[in-house]
Amino acid sequence: MLFSLYLSLYHIMNVLNGAELQKKDRRTKKGSRSQPPARHALAVARRALATRCFVVVALVVAIASASPSSPAASYSKGIISLVTGKVGASGFGSASTAEHVTEGIDASNLTVIITGGASGIGLETARVLALRKAHVIIAARNTVSAEEARQHILEENPSAKVDILKLDLCSLKSVRSFVDNFIALDLPLNILINNAGVMFCPFDLSEDGIEMQFATNHLGHFLLTNLLLDKMKQTAKASGIEGRIINLSSIAHNFTYRKGIRFDKINDRKGYTNKRAYGQSKLANILHTNELSRRLQEQGVNITANSVHPGVIMTPLMRHSSYLMHCLKLFTFYIWKNVPQGAATTCYVALHPSVKGVTGKYFVDCNEFKPSSFASNQLLGKKLWDFSNKLVSSISKA
């Protein structure tokens, strides 16, 4: 419902902008003067206010008319919690920050890998876990930015243990190289946070010939996780400490292609839309998490796997759609989080003792939340696992 709201607002803005352009075009054709800037700005402000009022009224009507047991009521309650910051069963909510949810936790015996830890919520996650005394490995494509992030953490916390290793998730060769370099450090591995990603990219293929959002957001993390599993199993067995894998998904997983995953057209330009491709990759994150969790449980391994939606935050991830997102933020200001709030759910699932033994779940605002029907489809998860394995295998042999 929330993502549909964004899309509805996006279409409303398009209609409004289109109408304005049509008026301007008609004025130009008639040879009349353009609307004065001040009057134009006032008109835009009025439309913005009208749209905000429309959204609030629509939410109130949806909440009032929904049956208490209906999905609409569940989503409505979720939006109310998001707007008000109301806490859930965990004791935390949308207003909670990463520092808040990890307060009092000692992570000094933990080693954590965070992909994309050089900026945005990845950096905040790295900072807070280091603050809780974990040994943090930042896996980043841009090592210069990662070093700047490391220095930022050390300035605040001189005793922080933070290291950097290069990782480009859209290159399976780089993923393998990263794992080799990490294993060479002879460190334990307790927590893997698959945080990095790209969003709303124009159509492009990775160096391995895979659609860029699927390659970066899913396939790179799929291989990375598989290659690090033995190390995590060894660490969990030797230490007796539960290992945790966290995949960052998004509420955007609800907005994907008609069949969920375009298995037979994963790299086709035809039919590609950057929004649905992103949704497809985020759906893949949850399916991967759930199937991984199922397999780990079958093996009796002391490792959990969960997925999270961090919230809607303006970060470098949105560089391909910053104008659109700034416009959306104007209309949906009450549902956006800041970066410390955006990192909260990841940090909660990574460290909090109340999540011990919890696996195969999807978390929103530090509380369990039911994902889409596609995301809950075990057969689709198995199919994606086999498809991903074959894809990785075919690239390795090429």
Automatic annotation (TrEMBL):
Coiled coil: none annotated. Pfam families: adh_short (PF00106). It comes from the Eukaryota. InterPro entries: NAD(P)-bd_dom_sf, SDR_fam, TIC32. Belongs to the short-chain dehydrogenases/reductases (SDR) family. This is Short-chain dehydrogenase TIC 32, chloroplastic. It comes from Crotalaria pallida (Smooth rattlebox).
